[in-house]
Amino acid sequence: MTTATYTVTGMTCGHCVSSVKEEIGEVPGVTGVEVDLATGLVTVESDSPLDTAQIRAAVEEAGYELVDKR
């Protein structure tokens, strides 16, 4: 199992969190997503390392911006 943490900007409420979790959760290989609204940190668990571009695309589909990978 692999865990990666990203910073997402633009989230302001619980609906934002749900949207980000839903979109990232649809990326093939993702097994879990945790979002901290206060910090903007998104932790993604997966079966194997993921391409950051896939996570960025999912975050953008939800309407937010992926700032960086931690």
What does this 3D model show about the protein?
- This protein is α+β, with helices and mostly antiparallel strands and about 70 residues long.
- Helix content is about 35%, strand content about 35%.
- It has 2 helices and 4 strands; from the N terminus they run βαββαβ.
- The protein has helices spanning about 15-25, 50-60; strands at about 1-10, 30-35, 40-45, 65-70.
- The protein has a 4-stranded antiparallel beta sheet with strand order 2-3-1-4, covered by helices on one side.
- α1 packs across α2.
- It starts with a strand and ends with a strand.
- The model has no long low-confidence stretch (mean pLDDT about 95).
Q: Descriptors for this entry?
A:
single chain, 70 residues, alpha+beta, 37% strand, globular
Set down the secondary structure blueprint.
Elements: E1 2-9, H1 14-25, E2 30-36, E3 41-46, H2 52-62, E4 65-69
Antiparallel strand pairs: 1-3, 1-4, 2-3
Helix pairs in contact: 1-2
